[in-house]
Amino acid sequence: MLIQRALGILATGALIAITVPQLSGNLSLAQARSQRHQTIYVNTASELLKAIAPHRTIVLRPNTYNLSGLAVPANHPYLERNKDTGGLMIKNVSHLTLRGEDVRATKIVISELAPHVLSFQDSHQIQLESLEIGHVPQSHAICLGAVLGFHSSKNISLRDLNLFGSGTFGLWLENTQQLNLDNSVIKECSQGIAFLSESRQITFRNSLFVDNAGGFNLWDHSQARVVGSQFIHNQALKSKDYSKALLSVKGPGRLQISHSQLTDNHAQALKGEGAEHIQLFSNYMHRNHYSR
Q: Are residues 31 and 106 both part of a single domain?
């Protein structure tokens, strides 16, 4: 009797008649979703662009995918060239995953100076995994674009990425929500680690920030937290257009750094503008140099 009650089958036949079709319907819905999502393997930059679409996992075989100079496929509903920078923008896409087979041998690059390497607009449920991404400009050229840009997007997962300069920032976020960066590296960017404007619920975990010419710049109402990460040999004093402090909050936002290591960083100060909105706790700090 108790077992029957626990299973919910001590009831009238009408109850059973309702429960079984509901279960069947849920299974059908799950099957439909599974059939709708596709996994596609690509080997070239052109194949990558053609494959961009919602509800897709695109697996990039080991190669260097140079997106510069490629024509956008005709009438592509999810790709366009940015009118200002000429860079590729992925737009209005959801449930898209870009995954490299080997992070050490799978690169996405551009040679132009102005655009972000990859840029997403009005998109959600985006995942980037096991990729190396960055600019490969001519020697001594100065980049104006970041490595990854997200605009009016949400529910973003970035995992096992190597984001390298000379892009301005590893991440450039505008009006973006619920982004997580995990187990990744941001290195050698020419202005800083990350720039956020009107972006919230942004989390960096177990990541390495090394040899960047700046740190975190949060503007407007942006909110972010960094957990279990390492800041090593970043030189905020070199920043030209952004804060020369390692951490800055310009506006009523909030930045929290916890359980992280800060070593051999150089800046005017650890906290710059909006110091009262920057929280630090349970961090290890060693051999950092601040000029004031």
A: no
